[in-house]
Structure formats: C-alpha cells, structure tokens
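Memo to structure team: turn this sequence into structure tokens by end of day. - J.P.
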Amino acid sequence: MSRARTIARNDFRRVLRDRLVWGAVLLLGVMFLPSVGAVSPGPSTTLWEHVISMMADLISFSLVVVAAVGYNSITGERTEGSIRLVLGLSGTRRDVLLGKFLSRLSVVVIALGVVLSVASIQTVRAFGMRSLVPFWVMGGWMFIYGIVWTAITIGYSAAFSSQYRTLGALIATYALFTPVLAFWGTFIHPLFAFAFTGSFSLPYFETLADAPAWIQLMFRLNPLRGFAGMVQWSVSMMTARTPVIGLGFNLLGIIVFIALGAIVLLLGVRRFERADLGDEKSGPSWSTRMLPSVQATTVDDSNLPLTSANNQSRVETIVRGDLNRALKNWVVQGVVILFLLIIIPVIWQSIDLSREGAFIGTLSSRIEHAFFLPILVLGTAVGYQSVVGERDSSTIRYLLGLPGTRRELMSGKVIARVGIVVAAIVAVLFLTEVIVLLRLDAPYLNSFLIGAGWVLLVGVIWTTFVVGVSAAVSSRYRALAVVLGVYLLFSTNNGLWGAVVRPLIGLAFTGRFATPQWAYTPKVGPVWFQYLDGINPIIALRRVLDALRTVNGSVSSNMTPSLVLYSLLVIFAFAGGTLYVGYRCFEGTDLG
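Reply from structure team:
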C-alpha cells in the first residue's frame, strides 16, 4: 500500500500540471454553475425538482472531468514508453494501477467538492437552510458517481493500449446506458416486453408507479437509471415527497451501478497484468502512419494533375485523396458508425404514439431534437483535424509540394469533409423515412423534407466552421478546445448564452438580470431582442426551422421575412467568416 501511495502522490503532482485537466475542471464550473446561479424558483418549483435538476446536469457535466483526468492515466504512459520506468521502481502493476486510481480520484473528488459547495450556497440563497440536507444527500451520491466513473475510466485506460480506444470505450459505455440516446430503450426494452408479455411493445402506463414490477426492474437494471433512481428516492425521503419506486428496486439499481464500475476496473487490472509491455514505446508517429496513405492517394493517382492543369482538377484530386484518408481514419469511421447507430434508436423512440396509436407531435420537430447534437459531434469529429492534423504530422508539406495552392487545399478539405457528413446524414434520413412509414403508415413528406433540409443545413454549416477552425490553429487539441468553447458560448441550454448573455441583454433593456420571457415562447419578442438574440448562430438556425415550419403550417410564430433573412445572414457569416479567417491564418503560417 505504501508503494501505491507513493505512486499516487507523484501522479497527483503530474496531473495538476496537465492543462487538459485544468481546462476540464474549468469547463465543469462554467457549464454548471451559471445555470445554478441563474435559478429564480417560482412558486411552482419545489426543492426536490431543483435538486434533481442539478443532479441531472452533473451526471453529464462531471463526465467531462472524469474523462479528462483518467483516460490517459495508463495508456498515456504506455504510449510514451514511460510505463516501464514506473514499473522499474519498487512496485507491481497492481500498485501502479491503484496509485493511478487514487490520484485521479482525488482530482475528481476535489473538483466535484468545489462545484457542489458553490452550488449549495446558491441553493440556500434560493430555498433557505432547509435545502442543505437534501442538497448534500444528492451531493454525497454525486461523489459515489464520480468514484464509479473514475473506476470505469481507469479500468479502460488499463485495458487498452491506445488513448483513442479508451475514450471510445468510455463514450460507448455512456451512450449505451444514457436515456438521452435511447439505446437501452430501443434494444433492451423490447426484449423484456417479449419475455413478460409475448409482445415487443411495452404496455401503456401513466407513471412508473403504475407500471408492472418487471418494468420497474428493467429500468433499474440500467446503471445510469439505477443511480438516478436511488438519488431521487433519497432526496424524496429528505423532502417529505412520496417516492415513485420503493427502496428494494432502488437498492438493486445502485448495486448494478457500482458493480459496473467494479467489473470494468477488475477487467482492466487483469488485462494490464497480462499485457506484454516489453515492446511498449511511442511507436510510429501519426505522420509516419499517414504518409503512405497520403502518397497512395496522390502520387499513385493516375489522374494527378500536372502544373498546367486547371484549378478544378487540382481541387478534385485533393478531394479524392482527402476522402480516402479521412475514411481510413478509425476515429472518423467510429464516429460515423456511432452516428448511424445512435440516431435510429432516437428517431424510433421519438415518434410517440398515444394510447389510441395516433402520432403525437410534429415530425420536423422530432427530427430537429434527434439530429441536432449528434450532427455537431459528427461534424466536429470529421473536421477538427482536417488541416491541423496534417500540420501536426508534417504531411501538409508533402501535400503542398504537389501542384496546388493552399487555397485549393482548403477548398478540397472543405468539400471532402462536408461530403462525408452529408453522406452520413442522407443515409440516416433515408432510414428515418423508412421508420416513419413503418410506424405511421404515411410518409409525412412535407414535414420530413423540412426537417431533412434543415439538418443538412446544420451539417454543412457546422462542418465548414470546424474546418475553418482546424486551419486557424496549430494543434488538434486547440481545434477541439475552440470548437467546444464556441458551442459552450452559443448553447442556450447548457452554455453561457442562456446563463449569462441573455440575462445581460435583458439587463440592458429591462433593468433585470434575467432571460427575457420571449426566449421561452414561439413569439420572438420585440425588435431589440429579435436581432440581438439572433446573433447566436444556433438560435438563427432554429429560427430558420421555425420559419419553414410556419410556412408549412406546423407551428405559428411571428417570424418576418426580414428576420429570416437576418438569420440566414448570421448563419452563413458564422461558417464563411470562420472559414475565411482560417484560410488567412493558414496562408500566413510558416510550415517549414
């Protein structure tokens, strides 16, 4: 144990010097605390609802810190070759893994403790001292949540020899169990229903308390639902609220959640102990691995243009070569496959039917909610290393040594990366229409085309923006940081726009630091709010969708032609402006 403590202390000091970790901790505070501070509970908002809402936010936000802290704890040292140096000191592989777990867990606990402490002060200001006990009951469970996910992350880091595989396994685990992406509901719920009823459809029930016992069991076998259910039950006990499900099923749920962390950690220990580290070293660089494919898709191309060829043929060659390389990149492959796998279950679940079998909702709205965030993730994964990745690997100089200018290279990159995103979206849209026909027995063509056209617009705009960022910065990590920062700024749900910018706009025109009420209604409000709030490209995109749905008769809003034109101008200025700035930065960069 003393060896593990020594390793933990040394690793803790190393983690504190990691800018990625500090960035993730700062991101947690920036995403979570403004939304808590902006809370102005009305008479209908209960303490239970407030505490559970914070728990729901922390479940997602805290994973950013856990992933940043733990994903390279073991694989990072294996990739660098320093793992043999650590093992050369007095200590076994199990000591190393235990020390890593303790050090990384310390960072997670400290970060959660600081955020929860600030949030508790804000909660007391809103609800009084009576809120302390329910809040810290939730806070205690959040520490357990951090412990379990740290164990999962360290386990994956020990099990895999690649940081990307560790991140992929972590994301896949969360995607499987989170209710947001509906994997569990799409694949597991029908199996339970068939086992207990002989039908693949769940029986109708008003609330979970009215559901059969096997449905309550099914929900608690999902680790994330099991954890959330136990928190809800515990907070209910502290607020004199009647729990929806009894203690027995909730205990089962938390046991399943803790068991998930223990199993992944133990599997990681076993794989790490059996791994042959004799040949573990940094290995060939990304540039060494990529150079053959760069050469194969350029030099070996029989249509490679000579210096006298026109610009179009040069761009076409760059597009073909970049498509080839991008589609061979397993990160791009994995994200495209995940995109295809995630969207279909979400679409299936989002087409709600009433008890009588009638369709509830608007198809274009369902498509928007299902596609929006996955498209942003897809565009980011496909585009963030399109230019800067080649700069990092030095293959950019090889490409620029061929006939062609930097402008042609940028044009080819944009066309190739946007093409990949559009192709993936079109494939999923085709499957979406098939699902609509199967579930609703009607194509709903007008509504479908509105939603489809809008999601294609989102994919093109966001991917173009990401490629522009990739050209403007000097490292892949900076590209990801800028893209994530822009999303964090403009997101109206979890970002600074809803928590800070809109209240500032309200303060300037109404004298109150609060989001104007027009932000929550189909009406777009007075002129000053229309145009100031519309600077946000995400809001501008959604206004374009509202305008299309208004024309189709799906919704009613007071969108005017001038406001729609303004929104389109904001959208194209956002993507085109970023691309132009990226090109100018790339053009002025010394790649020697």
